[in-house]
Amino acid sequence: MRTLTVFNFITLDGYFKGPNGDISWHRHGAEENEYAAEGLKSESTLLFGRVTYEMMANYWPTPNAIKNDPIVAEGMNNADKIVFSRTLKKVEWNNTRLLKDNIVEEIKKMKSASGGPGKDMTLLGSGSIVTQFAEQGLIDEYQFMVDPVAIGNGTPIFKDIKHKLDLKLTMTRTFKSGVVLLCYQPMEK
Asked: Apex CA 170: angle with CA 118 and CA 15, to 5°?
């Protein structure tokens, strides 16, 4: 069975986006880049909602991204990608396919053995999709890069979650920047 991992940057007060989608609070140094590059070596299929997809697609294929972060840019640009959106008409970033409807059912099919062989999946950003998948018990691991900053308001990582989500800590890592990686798995019911 394929696994689904969430990877997201959050503030100490639990926001993954500040007001107006601002993410300038995130500290991403050389160590974090190395960690991201290692994660891309797993060759997971990358999943995005529309907003995260548009942000990523507008950065990673650019000469600036390729110059500043060549290893991460190569991994992002070469990875298989799926974007969930009801409003996008087409996707142009290479190796990307668009899913418009029934995203929960699509992920269930992709995760199941009946979906055939395939890569594990990593959901980046995409808070409303994180919540939808968490509510359905589809997420196998949560990886949060917690920045040592509180921003007071924004979009919480589990906005509008309706059920308690019990998690167990499986790993931590502290980066020189003060960012802490926290990895969790859902507790067995």
From this structure: 85
